[in-house]
UniProtKB/TrEMBL annotation:
Pfam families: zf-RVT. It comes from the Eukaryota. This is Reverse transcriptase zinc-binding domain-containing protein. Residues 11-95 form the Reverse transcriptase zinc-binding domain. The lineage of its organism: Eukaryota, Viridiplantae, Streptophyta, Embryophyta, Tracheophyta.
Amino acid sequence: MVWIHSDTGLYSVAGGVEHLRSNSTEPWWASIIWKKAIHPRLSGMACKIFQKRVPFDNEIQKWDVQLASRCYLCHKEVEDLNHIIWECNVSIDMWKWLSESFDALFEFNGFRQAMDKFNNAGSFIRDIWQAGVIATMVEIWKWSRYPRKFCW
């Protein structure tokens, strides 16, 4: 058997990884979350959220696991990524707080819109805003997993 993706015809793990890496397309959000201005721990957690590698009830139910789903923040809706991060009343309050901290209006309902909000601002303000959006998204997810009293 010959490995056609190498000059020698021999398979190596490094060659296999390089082949997979070169053939895969980078997700649209990867260049946004992996920036110098954003702490790697936040970027890693945001990456897991985007890849749906964090537990949400609707994802767990897809595996035929029976459970009663409820948002731990508002106690009203079914728990899923979009509700927890963007639609829940508690998360909307957090997004409003972040927007007001930047003296801006809360007029976005998704990650791409939020990240584009300060595209025309200077690089310093834009980087701080984007770090704030990612940190807020990660913290909202953490709060939904580990409910506790809010401090704001």
